[in-house]
Amino acid sequence: MLLEVANLSVWYDKAMLINHLSMGVDTGELVSLVGPNGAGKSTLLRAITGLVAWEREITRRSTHGDIILEGTVTFDKERIDQVPAHEIVKRGLILCPERRRPFREMTVLDNLMAGSYLLKDKDQIRDNLSKVYQLFPVLRDRPNQISGTLSGGEQQMLAIGRALMSKPKLLCIDEPSTGLAPLLRTEVFQKIRGIHELGITVLLIEQEVSTVFKMSSRNYVLSSGKIIAEGPGDQLLQDEVLRKTYLGL
After folding, report:
1. Mean pLDDT throughout 91-96?
2. Which residues contact 184 (CB under 8 A, 6 or more apart)?
3. How far apart, in Å, are the Cα atoms of 193 and each of 116, 152, 166?
4. Mean pLDDT score of the chain, rounded to an integer?
5. What value, to the nearest 5°, has the Cα angle with vertex 175 and ends 219 and 217?
6. pLDDT single digits (tens) 160-199
7. Can you give the pLDDT at residue 211?
8. Range of the domain at 161
9. Domain presence at residue 55
């Protein structure tokens, strides 16, 4: 496994948000993690990418309750659950966060170049930028546009493109369809499929079950901080209880 999560639990003060969760992503896969709002999807991503550990240090310096993280996260055969977030990025595990979050006052090109800040090889940076422009021609055509003036769909493409500039071994994409019109959602999902076809391993967190189940190699269903089902999309959709209770279908 490229990414392996084992018996992971996360508490914020006295609330358990992730409950002894185990899952994995193998090299070359596109794996989806689905579930309703409040299931713990974003908390799981923050734990995997080192942000929960960072939040824990912040709370220890304040008057707020503590954050507890237990279990192990292994990436590319190395434990990373006690590794700082910036070191995890260096190892190639990259998060494209929910709600896009571009640097709104910077240009499209400056946003993309910010994604390559850890790379030293200028030829590699140029090659990465070329690949991003091939995937997202709208970004190639607007390098000097201020990012905050882009549409929601264009900002989502910019956020994904910025993440790709670091040449990830594993790209984690959190809720890319949030706030987008149906046509733009379809286009964004097509781009994610194209990223996977380039050989990039993807962990996709989403609520658009019917779409992601068609794209993914495997799927996990998360509810109340627990994995309640795993498997191919067509297999999961045959379970009527799962469809109605957890997938909203």
Report:
1. 95
2. 151, 152, 153, 156
3. 22, 19, 19
4. 89
5. 25
6. 999 999 999 999 999 998 888 888 889 999 999 999 999 9
7. 87
8. 99-167
9. no
Q: Residue 25 falls within a domain, yes or no? A: no
Residue showing tokens 């974003």: 42
The pLDDT score that the predictor gives to residue 59 is 55
Chain mean position to CA 218: 15
Q: Quote the CA–CA distance of 93 and 85 in Å, as a whole number.
A: 9
Collapsing DSSP to helix, strand or coil, 12 comes out as: strand
Helix (H) or strand (E) holding 10: strand 3-12
- CA nearest 108: which of 139, 130, 72, 154? 139
Q: 77 vs 163, 206, 227, CA distance in Å?
A: 22, 26, 23
Closest CA to 202 of 213, 216, 188: 216
10 contact partners, CB below 8 Å, separation of at least 6: 16, 17, 18, 40, 43, 44, 47, 52, 67, 68, 69, 70, 225
Cα–Cα distance between 119 and 103 in angstroms, integer? Answer: 19
Q: SS3 of 165, please?
A: coil
When divided into structural domains, the chain yields a total of: 1
Of 170, 196, 153, 186, the residue nearest 30 (C-alpha): 196
**What local confidence, expressed as pLDDT, does residue 104 receive?**
85
User: Does 180 fall in a domain?
Assistant: no
pLDDT of residue 100: 66
